[in-house]
């Protein structure tokens, strides 16, 4: 084998440099949240002239202001993870992980599957991408594990432009409380999710994302971060019996259980209930009956967060078959939500300070948003709305939370300038998901599964941030 080092391409060189920077300077996600808290506190004192006690009050009131929304987000994440851990999906992932034969193919396929799944549902996509990436890491030799997980997370870049995007779903459902009076009736998804500019952006990134991620893969073996498959842990699909995907060979994993007739006969009545599929089937019938009733009675396909969570929960109940399997899967899936549970109150406190007003009714969110409003024209307003939302998302990494912060400011301003309110709403949504590529908050579950830190992947996702910013900017400016 030749010892001559191959020259890095432009994209690979940029990714290598940004990864080195992130490795040295990006702190843990919890530290990142505390630093942001300090920045917002000081910035609010400077730009809104609020006092220490006043900002402490805003922070304290904000800390617990998003409990209901926090639970919705945790359930989206956990139920998506539980579904991904079900036997049918594990088998599907095993088959899909046999497709790529080279590192480039592995990176591309993870990018496509993660992005497509995030467009369908962000919680499911975020988890299924990481689990699929781990399966590929076991089978494809010479693949960079950090880039592989970064590729899985990069699919999250446009989740808000997909079918679980909270902003388009909220205004489609008729909740116009955060629009500042700019909307008087619900906005159908035909004007947001299925608009020409959104289709251009979503399809454009579907094409570009795998290409960019592949170009970042190191050409030289010494630059490749390879992980020992034994260190990844977790159940291998090889442990699943061939005749029945719900039966495990002896001494294999914990995600789903099946027992022989002899073992079942020796169980106590309580243990028999835990291992009986009838319990789950009865609950699944009830759940799916309500889902059908919900769509039939509403007269429209309203995919709000609650109904998405119920669909994922009932699919998990059905596909895991037994209560014991479902309970074990939920126990495992809940571990990925620990970082969110710890940090969401901090970000809710940041949101409290961002929106907390002084005696003149001015908040830091107003200062940021108004700056972009004042320099905007009817042509540039959507682009500046997107950029301002990207900045605000660093401090309020929550689609619903950001909508509450920016909607009442940007929506009326856009209407006054002459911009379609539906487009303004989508630009807020784009910014909210875009800077997740450099905001480690939502990467926590995937990183927990992969056993990596934020600094391991953010160098790569920074490149995705730049490319996707150009695509989104072109879509909202020219279309």
UniProtKB/TrEMBL annotation:
Transmembrane regions listed in the UniProt entry: 29-47, 63-86, 106-133, 145-163, 197-216, 277-295, 301-319, 340-359, 371-396, 457-478
Database matches in PANTHER family: SHORT-CHAIN FATTY ACID TRANSPORTER-RELATED
Keyword Transmembrane helix listed: yes
Signal sequence bounds: none
Protein name: Short-chain fatty acid transporter
Native source organism of the sequence: Brachyspira catarrhinii
Cytoplasm as UniProt keyword: no
Entry keywords, A to Z: Membrane, Transmembrane, Transmembrane helix
């Amino acid at each position: 084998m030749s010892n001559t080092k191959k020259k890095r391409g432009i994209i690979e060189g940029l990714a290598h440099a940004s990864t080195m920077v992130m490795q040295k300077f990006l702190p843990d996600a919890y530290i990142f949240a505390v630093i942001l808290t300090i920045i917002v506190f000081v910035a609010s004192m400077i730009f809104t002239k609020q006092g220490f006690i006043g900002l402490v009050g805003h922070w304290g009131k904000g800390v617990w202001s998003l409990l209901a929304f926090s639970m919705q987000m945790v359930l989206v994440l956990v139920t998506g993870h539980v579904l991904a851990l079900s036997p049918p999906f594990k088998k599907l992932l095993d088959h899909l992980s046999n497709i790529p034969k080279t590192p480039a193919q592995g990176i591309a396929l993870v990018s496509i599957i993660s992005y497509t799944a995030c467009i369908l549902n962000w919680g499911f996509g975020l988890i299924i991408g990481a689990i699929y990436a781990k399966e590929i890491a076991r089978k494809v030799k010479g693949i960079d594990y950090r880039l592989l997980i970064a590729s899985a997370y990069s699919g999250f870049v446009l989740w808000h432009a997909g079918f679980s995007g909270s902003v388009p779903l909220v205004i489609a459902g008729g909740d116009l409380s955060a629009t500042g009076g700019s909307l008087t009736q619900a906005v159908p998804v035909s004007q947001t999710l299925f608009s020409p500019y959104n289709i251009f952006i979503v399809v454009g990134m579907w094409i570009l994302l795998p290409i960019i991620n592949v170009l970042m893969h190191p050409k030289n073996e010494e630059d490749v971060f390879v992980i020992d498959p034994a260190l990844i842990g977790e159940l291998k699909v090889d442990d699943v019996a061939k005749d029945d995907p719900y039966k495990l060979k002896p001494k294999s994993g914990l995600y789903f259980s099946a027992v022989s007739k002899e073992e079942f006969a020796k169980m106590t009545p309580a243990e028999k209930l835990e291992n009986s599929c009838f319990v789950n089937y009865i609950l699944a019938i009830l759940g799916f009956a309500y889902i059908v009733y919900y769509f039939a009675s509403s007269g429209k396909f309203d995919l709000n967060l609650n109904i998405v969570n119920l669909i994922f929960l009932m699919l998990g109940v059905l596909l895991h078959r037994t209560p014991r399997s479902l309970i074990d899967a939920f126990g495992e899936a809940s571990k990925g939500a620990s970082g969110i549970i710890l940090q969401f109150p901090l970000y809710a406190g940041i949101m409290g300070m961002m929106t907390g007003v002084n005696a003149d009714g001015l908040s830091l969110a107003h200062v940021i948003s108004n700056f972009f409003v004042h320099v905007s024209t009817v042509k540039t307003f959507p682009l500046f709305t997107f950029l301002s939302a990207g900045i605000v998302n660093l401090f309020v990494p929550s689609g619903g939370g950001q909508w509450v912060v920016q909607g009442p400011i940007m929506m009326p301003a856009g209407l006054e300038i002459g911009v379609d309110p539906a487009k303004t709403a989508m630009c807020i949504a784009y910014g909210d998901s875009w800077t997740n590529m450099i905001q480690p908050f939502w990467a926590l579950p995937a990183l927990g599964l992969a056993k990596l830190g934020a600094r391991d992947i953010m160098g790569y996702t920074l490149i995705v941030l730049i490319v996707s910013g150009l695509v989104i900017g072109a879509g909202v400016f020219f279309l």
